[in-house]
């Protein structure tokens, strides 16, 4: 596991290049977002996505949220109606994950063999440049241990990785060699991020939109944009 410090207010091209190198080799990484630190891999690479499940000891029945660069990328991965496209253009980029009917391009592991996918366009220059350089969508599951909240403090995340003998998302005990095998290849260390709630989750797969989780975006604003009561 390589830890790469980066100042997001300065030139972070080295971090972008290293992240792309790791991700193109079916690797995994922890990276900063506009809400918290996330655990990522190329969402179209089944080998890489399987590593995410192993690191978190996550059940394969649970799909992974996916970061895309823009609405065009989202349209390539999900079926989006003209009305939904207009709505998404009003909330993206931003901290809202939207569940939509999926197309076939993603790894089946990413969507847990389901017919939907959760997509988000982050309001974050680092991720915009990373996705532009990488050319693939990125898994965006939280980098947290079992029973803990999402963390904006990379020191806590790294300390847990280095000292814990259990994988992300599990209370099971592991040997040192097993734990090392479950660590990401790269950590993009951007320090302590601004505090934020986890992203809002909005389901647009049925005729009636549903807010599944309230996050930083006002529910009232979402309802108004959707024409919901």
Automatic annotation (TrEMBL):
Keyword annotations from UniProtKB, A to Z: ATP-binding, Cytoplasm, Nucleotide-binding, Nucleotidyltransferase, Transferase, tRNA processing
Keyword flag Nucleotidyltransferase: yes
Localisation: Cytoplasm
Listed PROSITE patterns: YRDC (PS51163)
Entry's Gene Ontology BP terms: regulation of translational fidelity; tRNA processing
Catalytic activity: L-threonine + hydrogencarbonate + ATP = L-threonylcarbamoyladenylate + diphosphate + H2O
Enzyme class per UniProt: transferase
InterPro entries: DHBP_synth_RibB-like_a/b_dom, Sua5-like_dom, TC-AMP_synthase_SUA5
Listed EC numbers: 2.7.7.87
All copies of domain YrdC-like, residue ranges: 13-217
GO cellular component: cytoplasm
Main location: cytoplasm
GO molecular function: ATP binding; double-stranded RNA binding; L-threonylcarbamoyladenylate synthase; tRNA binding
NCBIfam families hit by this protein: L-threonylcarbamoyladenylate synthase (TIGR00057)
PANTHER family on file: SUA5, THREONYLCARBAMOYL-AMP SYNTHASE
Name the UniProt record assigns to this protein: L-threonylcarbamoyladenylate synthase
């Amino acid at each position: 596991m390589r830890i790469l410090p980066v100042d997001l207010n300065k030139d972070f091209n080295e971090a972008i290049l290293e992240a792309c190198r790791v991700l193109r080799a079916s690797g995994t990484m922890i990276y900063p977002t506009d809400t918290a630190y996330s655990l990522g891999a190329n969402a179209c690479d089944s080998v890489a996505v399987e590593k995410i499940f192993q690191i978190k000891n996550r059940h394969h029945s649970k799909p992974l949220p996916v970061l895309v660069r823009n609405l065009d990328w989202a349209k390539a991965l999900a079926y989006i109606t003209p009305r939904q496209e207009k709505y998404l253009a009003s909330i993206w980029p931003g901290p809202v994950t939207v569940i939509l009917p999926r197309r076939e391009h993603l790894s089946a592991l990413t969507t847990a063999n389901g017919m939907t996918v959760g997509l988000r366009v982050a309001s974050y220059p680092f991720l915009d440049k990373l996705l532009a350089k990488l050319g693939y969508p990125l898994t965006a599951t939280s980098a947290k241990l079992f029973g803990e909240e999402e963390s904006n403090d990379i020191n806590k995340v790294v300390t847990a990785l280095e000292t814990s003998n259990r994988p992300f998302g599990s209370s099971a005990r592991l040997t040192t060699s097993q734990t090392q095998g479950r660590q990401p290849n790269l950590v993009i260390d951007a320090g302590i991020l601004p505090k934020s709630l986890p992203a809002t989750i909005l389901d647009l797969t049925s005729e009636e939109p549903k807010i599944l989780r309230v996050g930083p975006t006002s529910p009232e604003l979402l309802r108004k944009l959707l024409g919901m009561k």
